[in-house]
Write a structure and sequence with these properties.
Helix content: 25-40%
Structural class: alpha+beta
Oligomer: single chain
Distance between the termini: 25 Å
Number of helices: 17
Radius of gyration: 22 Å
Length: about 475
C-alpha cells in the first residue's frame, strides 16, 4: 500500500550474479527460470509491501538441489531466498538485494508416516491439505491450520499458528526435528523422532520461526494427532465484542478444552455473510469447535453455552454434521477475500497482534474505538483462545490522508498490544514489515544476540537478507 522498507541492501556485483546464473543454468537446465513473469510470482504481492523479485528462480526437487544452489550462491556471495507457496504476509519472500529464489513446491513427498508414534517425516513443499488427505485413512491428522493451504516448510519457517492453536499449539509445539541446509551448503540434523530430548542446544526451535535467515529447511519431522471420535462446530452471537471476549476468557480459565474459538466482529460477520452467502446476525460472533467423544463434546458445548449466556450471548447452536461444519469454517478461512469485497479497489493491509488473554477484551475494544475515531474500516477476526487477533485494514491507496490515518492506526495497534504485555505479531512473523517494532518489544540486547546467531550461521548474509533484524 505504499509504506517503505527501511533496508537498503547492496545488490551482488553484476559479474558475480552473471557467474552464479551461468553455473546454476549448467547444473539445473530448464529448472532455472529467469523470465520476468515467474520472478514476479516469487515476490511479495499479498499486502502493502512493495514487490521485490529475485533475479532467477530454481525449481528444487531434492535436498541436494538446495545444497548445490546454496554452494554456488555462497561462492559468489549472492542471496538465496526459500519459497514455499508464497502465502506469508510480511514480505518474507521478497528479494530486496536480488539473488536466487529456491522454489520448494516440487519437494512434496511424504517420506514416512508412523501412526503408532503419532509422527511423520515430510519434505518442505508438502501442504497441510495434501498431508491430511494422505493421513485420513490412518486415523491421524496434522492440526495446525493457518487458513491458507501453506507448505509445511513455510509454516515452520514463519512459526505459523491458526484456528486450532488453542488446543493443539503452534508450529513451535509440533515440530520434532528438522534437516536444514546451512549457508555453506552442509546439512544440520536438529533432532530425532523422540517426543522429548535434553541433548544439547535446542536447534530445532532455533530454525522454527527464523524465516529462512539461518538455514533452509529440507525435511521436517512433525507430530500428528488422533482424529477425534466426534467434532462439533458452534456459532454464538453476542451483544458486544467485550462480551464475546469475556466468554472466551472464562471458557479458557474454567478449562473447557475448546479446539477452536474464533472471534468475528460485526464488520467481519457482515463481510462473511455477503461473500459466503450466510445469514448470521451481524453482531460480534464466536465460532467454536469441540473435539472428543460424543459425551465429551456434548458436555463441552453445554458448559460453554452457560458461559455465553452469562456474557450476553444469544442463541447457541452447534452441529456435528460435516457439511455444516465445513460451511462455517470455510467462511472463516475466506475472511480475507470477504473483506476485499466490502470495498472493491481498495488496498488491504492484514496485520496481527497477540496479548495475554486477560487483556484481550480491552485490546479489541480499544482497537475498535481507534478505528471509529480515525474513520477507518478494518474488520477484526481472531484466534482469541490464545489472545491473537487480526485486523484487515481497507484504505484508498490514492487518498494520502486516509493512508496516513491507516499507518497511524497500525502503529497504535502494535504499541497498544506491547503496552499490554503482548507482541507485535502472534503468527504473521516479522519479515520486512514489523522490524521497526522489535527493539521496543525485546530490547537492544536481544537483537544483538540475534545478530550474533545470524553472523555465526550465515557470516556472509546470503540467507534471506533484510528480514527479521532491523537495519544496524
Amino acid at each position: 500500500m505504499g509504506l517503505s522498507i527501511t533496508h537498503n541492501l547492496p545488490r551482488p556485483e553484476p559479474q558475480a550474479l552473471a557467474s552464479t546464473i551461468e553455473a546454476l543454468a549448467a547444473r539445473f537446465g530448464n529448472r532455472l527460470v529467469t523470465s520476468q513473469a515467474v520472478r514476479e510470482q516469487h515476490a511479495h504481492t499479498t499486502t502493502w509491501l512493495p514487490s521485490q523479485p529475485p533475479d532467477a528462480v530454481v525449481m528444487a526437487q531434492e535436498t541436494v538441489d538446495i545444497q548445490d544452489v546454496v554452494r554456488i550462491c555462497a561462492r559468489h556471495r549472492v542471496p538465496v531466498i526459500a519459497f514455499g507457496t508464497g502465502t506469508s504476509l510480511e514480505g518474507q519472500i521478497n528479494a530486496p538485494a536480488g539473488g536466487i529464489c529456491i522454489d520448494l513446491r516440487d519437494m512434496n513427498r511424504i517420506l514416512e508416516v508412523h501412526p503408532e508414534d503419532l509422527d511423520c517425516v515430510i519434505q518442505p513443499g508438502v501442504t497441510r491439505k495434501a498431508l491430511n488427505e494422505h493421513l485420513r485413512d490412518q486415523g491421524v491428522f496434522f492440526p495446525i491450520d493457518p487458513g491458507a493451504d501453506a507448505s509445511l516448510g513455510g509454516m515452520a519457517s514463519t512459526r505459523a499458528s491458526g484456528t486450532n492453536a488453542v488446543r493443539y499449539g503452534t508450529m513451535r509445539d509440533n515440530v520434532l526435528a528438522l534437516k536444514v541446509v546451512r549457508a555453506d551448503g552442509e546439512i544440520i540434523t536438529t533432532g530425532t523422532r523422540a517426543k522429548k530430548s535434553s541433548a544439547g542446544y535446542d536447534l530445532t526451535h532455533l530454525f522454527v520461526g527464523a524465516e529462512g535467515t539461518l538455514g533452509i529447511i529440507s525435511e521436517l519431522t512433525i507430530k500428528l494427532r488422533g482424529i477425534p471420535e466426534t467434532i462439533a462446530a458452534a456459532a454464538c452471537s453476542f451483544e458486544s465484542v467485550q462480551g464475546a471476549c469475556q466468554a472466551t476468557i472464562l471458557a479458557i480459565q474454567t478449562g473447557i478444552p475448546v479446539a477452536r474459538i474464533e472471534l468475528l466482529n460485526a464488520a467481519q460477520v457482515r463481510a462473511c455473510n455477503a461473500y459466503s452467502k450466510l445469514s448470521l446476525p451481524e453482531t460480534p460472533l464466536l465460532l467454536l469447535e469441540f473435539h472428543g467423544s460424543e459425551n465429551e463434546v456434548s458436555e463441552q458445548s453445554k458448559n460453554f453455552s452457560e458461559i455465553a449466556r452469562e456474557c450476553g450471548g444469544g442463541d447457541f447452536t452447534w452441529t456435528t454434521r460435516p457439511e455444516d461444519r465445513t460451511k462455517l469454517w470455510q467462511a472463516r478461512h475466506d475472511a480475507y477475500w470477504a473483506v476485499q469485497g466490502l470495498r472493491p479497489g481498495s488496498g488491504l493491509v492484514a496485520t496481527d497482534v497477540c496479548v495475554p488473554i486477560s487483556r484481550l477484551a480491552d485490546c479489541v475494544t480499544e482497537t475498535e474505538e481507534d478505528l471509529k475515531r480515525l474513520n477507518l474500516l478494518s474488520p477484526i477476526v481472531g484466534h482469541v483462545g490464545d489472545g491473537n487477533f487480526h485486523c484487515s485494514l481497507l484504505c484508498d491507496v490514492n487518498d494520502a490522508d486516509e493512508m496516513a490515518r491507516g499507518e497511524d492506526f497500525m502503529h497504535r495497534l502494535v504499541e497498544r498490544a506491547q503496552a499490554m504485555g503482548g507482541t507485535c505479531t502472534g503468527e504473521h512473523g516479522i519479515g520486512q514489515g514489523k522490524q521497526k517494532y522489535l527493539k521496543a518489544e525485546l530490547g537492544t540486547e536481544a537483537i544483538d544476540a540475534m545478530r550474533a546467531v545470524k553472523q555465526a550461521l550465515d557470516p556472509h548474509n546470503i540467507l534471506n537478507p533484510g528480514k527479521i533484524l532491523p537495519a544496524a
